Each structure stands twice: as structure tokens, then as C-alpha cells.
Amino acid sequence: MILWLYFSASLMKNTGVVVANDAKKDRTKALVANIHRLGILNTVVCNYDGRAFPKVMSGFDRVLLDAPCSGTGVISKDQSVKTNKTEIDIFRCSHTQKELILSAIDATDANSSTGGYIVYSTCSVLVEENESVIDYALSKRHVKLVSTGLEFGNEGFTQFRGKQFHPSLALTRRFYVHSHNMDGFFVAKLKKYSNRTISHDKSRHPGGNTNYISESKDSVAGIDTSSLDEKKETQTKVSRTNKERKRKLKSADSKKLGD
């Protein structure tokens, strides 16, 4: 966080106000220390749940959401990511990211004369945490994707394994360790053009693409959890079967010993 904070303060020449929010209170101490060390004077540090931040304050010209993610883009530095994340963990991350991006959009003022922009970024290379999240935001709020201004990086996916995303997802950027000599990364820039909210029963996308098919099925988080429920049910049945087998084996062993 301190890098983008220092960069933002420099661009603003220590004028205006930057609000730096971190959900983990322990990290705010180091953040404050670094702010003093770097001579940053225009920043307020706070500790709130980002999903409820618009209730605390809103009306920002610009919002940068560096979303918590699975960290699959930094496997080269942390090999444990390969084994300590399950499919359910990924869907939970995606759920939280979708809540956070809606919160970031709601905290942004579409009528700002100098902004109305939201930047979303993760250090993940998974579609579920990147394109799926942005695609969901496009269907739930009055926002559109704009160019990131980055001249390098791969275009984001507009389709992946049978799933169709909004064509403007090509404006997002993906970065790979093997291609760009940096950590895996994803970035998207959104422009909010209205402060009105979209009804839940309508799927609305900039440009009026009538052939668009949304992959979101859950009305709250945009996650199809049916497959996860089926897997949980299967795992429970397998666990019960295994326990029953062990019980029968123990019973058989006890009878042999008694004989």
C-alpha cells in the first residue's frame, strides 16, 4: 500500500486528501510510520471493513481497490500458494472481491469534475478473481471500462472456458511472470457515469450488448454455489461411509479377539 500511497501523494503534491483504509488494524501502525518517514502530509489512515466503507464516507473523486486475493500471481516467491488454497477458498475470495468492488463504486462520485474513476487490482492470475469480478460490477452498477493507459501487458479475457464476458474486458490488463518479468498481476480501470443503482432484476451492460450472457447466478454475490454444495454433500457422504467402514472393522477385530 505504501508505494501507491507515496505515488498518489507525490502526484497531488501533498495537497487534497488521500484516505488510506486497511482492514487489518495491526498493519495501520506500520503504514502511519512510513507516512511520517516519507513526509506525506495529506493522508488520513483508517481501519474499516471495506465492504461497509460507503456508510462511513463517500463522494471520492477516485478509488483504488487493491483487493485481497489468493496470491496466485506470486507463486514464484511463495510456493505454499500451490497447496494451501482450495477451490472453495478461490470462490470465497471472489465473493469478497465482488462485495468490495461494489463498495468502491458506491464510494465514488460519478459527478466529480476531476474523477469518477475506480481502479481494481489483484496479484492473482485467476479469471474468477479478475474478469469475473469486473464483469459482475458492469452488470450491477452504472460503470464502464476505460483504457488503463498501460502500453504493455496482455489484454483481459472476453471469454474463458465457455463463459462469455463483456467485450470491453479487453481493456483490462494481465501481467505474467514469464512474459513481463514481474509478479502476476491484473488491473482494470472503471469510469462511473451515474450515481443511481441498477435494479437486481435487470442485467445492464454499457453498449447495449443484447447477445451478452452473464455467468453470475447468485443475486447477492454473483456466484453459482450449486456446484460447491454438491461437492460438500459428496464429501460428507464419503466421510460417513469411511467412518462406517472403520466402525465395522473395529467390531470385527473385537469379535476375533474375543474368540
From TrEMBL:
Residues 1-193 form the SAM-dependent MTase RsmB/NOP-type domain. The keyword Methyltransferase applies. Residues 250-259 have a biased composition (Basic and acidic residues). Belongs to the class I-like SAM-binding methyltransferase superfamily. RsmB/NOP family. The active site is at 123 (nucleophile). This is 25S rRNA (Cytosine-C(5))-methyltransferase nop2. One of its GO terms (biological process) is rRNA base methylation. Pfam families: Methyltr_RsmB-F. Keywords: Methyltransferase, RNA-binding, S-adenosyl-L-methionine, Signal, Transferase. GO terms for cellular component: nucleolus. GO terms for molecular function: RNA binding; rRNA (cytosine-C5-)-methyltransferase activity. Residues 197-259 are annotated as: Disordered. S-adenosyl-L-methionine binds at residues 22, 49, 66. It comes from Acropora cervicornis (Staghorn coral). Residues 1-20 form the signal peptide.
